[in-house]
Hints:
2 copies of one chain form a homodimer. Chain A is an alpha/beta fold. The first copy, chain A, has 3 domains: 2-44, Orthogonal Bundle (434 Repressor (Amino-terminal Domain)), CATH 1.10.260.40; 55-155 and 291-321, Response regulator (Rossmann fold, 3-Layer(aba) Sandwich); 157-287, 3-Layer(aba) Sandwich (Rossmann fold), CATH 3.40.50.2300. Chain A has helices spanning 2-8, 12-20, 27-40, 46-53, 69-84, 98-110, 125-134, 157-170, 187-203, 219-232, 246-257, 274-278, 290-306, and strands spanning 58-63, 88-93, 115-118, 138-140, 151-154, 176-181, 212-215, 238-242, 266-269, 285-287, 316-318, 322-324. Chain A has a 6-stranded parallel β-sheet, with helices on both faces. In chain A, helix 8 (157-170) runs parallel beside helix 9 and helix 10 packs across helix 11. The interface between A and B is large, with 55 and 55 residues. Chain B binds a DNA duplex through helix 2 and helix 4.
Amino acid sequence: MRDVAARAGVSTMTVSRALNEPGKVSEEMRERVLRAVREIGYLPNHLAGSLSSNRSTTIGLIVPSIDNSIYTQTVKGLSEVLKSSGFQLMIAESGYDPNEEEELITVFLSHRVSGLVLHSTEHTPQAAEKIRKSGIPVVENGNIPREPLDMVVSFSNYDASYAMTMHLGRLGYRKIAFASLYSVHNDRSQDRLQGYHAALRQLGLDPDPRIVLETERGLAAGAEVMARVVQSVPEVDALFCAGDVLVVGALFECQKRGWAVPGRIALASFDDVDLLRHVSPSVTTLRLPRYDIGERTARILLSRIMDGAEHLRGSVVDLKFELIQREST
Amino acid sequence: MRDVAARAGVSTMTVSRALNEPGKVSEEMRERVLRAVREIGYLPNHLAGSLSSNRSTTIGLIVPSIDNSIYTQTVKGLSEVLKSSGFQLMIAESGYDPNEEEELITVFLSHRVSGLVLHSTEHTPQAAEKIRKSGIPVVENGNIPREPLDMVVSFSNYDASYAMTMHLGRLGYRKIAFASLYSVHNDRSQDRLQGYHAALRQLGLDPDPRIVLETERGLAAGAEVMARVVQSVPEVDALFCAGDVLVVGALFECQKRGWAVPGRIALASFDDVDLLRHVSPSVTTLRLPRYDIGERTARILLSRIMDGAEHLRGSVVDLKFELIQREST
DNA sequence: CTGGATTTTGGTATCGGTAACAATACTATT
DNA sequence: AATAGTATTGTTACCGATACCAAAATCCAG
């Protein structure tokens, strides 16, 4: 930058202004500076800029696991909005471990990110304290937590799970099994389970621990769950797979065993991946606002960061989901 | 940091060393400093550190599209290795546009990333020039380009496509259709197409432009391609879907129409997603070293950055793929 | 044409660290 | 015990930008 200033015969301050606040510099100066920039091939140093101005243009994002396709839409939403405002995304994965998350938060804070997006809503007390102390805005967006750190943009896993279970009940299913991913350190899973139970109560159905299962991700796990449930509790007439692509594994298993869907057993899922519309029978599921979550998250963060919109602190955006009835129920 | 130094009664230099080069500081000092750090709740400022030392611990990654599950494994490999060395990942998407990519490279360079990972291997001349000028190490990992910018960690799309086409030929298929994603600004698609053609020549089969199609991503596109190919050229006996989950859409379409797979038509795919093993018939495909690519990319980058391993400049790591024969062919 | 208001430009300190070298304390050797 | 050698700590300058305030240039009404 020194070189640019020298070449253009102006001070570094003028160069800085020409680049960042073009309005505050005369037409002539601006052109002179820009020409010098081009001639020298000058590339501003963002680190120096951020350090000096005490503002940064990076946002930290922590997801439980990067190789999980359900986040990709959200990340895309985030990324697109942030990019249009010149912000950069730093991404890391916590492996569903709150301590790991705390560590990553520390790292991001030391990188002076100007905002944080957390997919998990379970945090260590120290993590919460560090964030509070740093004063930067945070958005949680995997769930609607009982005690938000700050802002929230999400749908309610509880409501969604409740809605689907109620839907199954209204369709006349009476022995509704429930499969989810492991709920340890996964409040999304926990809330889905609770929504399921609440709906059962509402429907006047008795909970049966034999048909409530937790498993790992993947098609094989879904198939395994399907087989186990039907064999241990033959009177089961529906299976609600509240996670990942479990339902597809379950469906394949039914096809293999010759169990009619929904004749023998109905199937419902949680996330509307493209696949569910194309399999046969097509699968009843919930359409979740994955992309919107990312987009809104970015917008609300940027409002806080750029416009200092303090009135948004602590705001909770509960985005709606949609239940899609298809052939499998 | 000033505060920490004061509290511990030492100079800032000693604090800096205690934190970053513990070996160069006496046991006693180290403890004194660490205690002060804890008491004050001091968080180092990475921006300042990087600026001062002219080293950073961030790596820039540019993928064509974030919401594409084929990258997630690679990103995971990258992320895990980088994290273990304290490096951070900045991710952005170029939307398959080289100009956009150039823009992002510029941004990353101004953030002083210490390395770049590019999934695309098609770049603007200016982008190449900027990278060269910056002197930072780069890894391309979506393909093996004819003229690498610097280092490459990938499998060969050409070889993989060639191998699968040859495989189909050896199995006796004579009218092999080929479907890929649009190849404009997508050298991976282009190379796959060339590999296909090379194999046809080797097999002594005539190319037929009517059965070489490009389409968009998604199941619907795969289904559409399937229907179109069979109807326009009934003698087709195999379809090689060289991209995304096209093959699944194609398979569903066959099931819907009652076309036996592989009786009426054989199906082969490019990427071994979990699904292909579980559908019926299971689908012949290529197992690509997605995770390994990320891992190796990270390792080779770190060698260059931390150990200054200049002998690695320009090295090309051609990771092997594996052809998995299943029921569909 | 002049004085004050306004716009444009520049000088200097500073952001929070680290590099490079200087100074001091400690060890080992003869 | 003296000296060279090594380990530890401190001093100072600087990384590359921006904030803050001062100075110069421009504008405009009276």
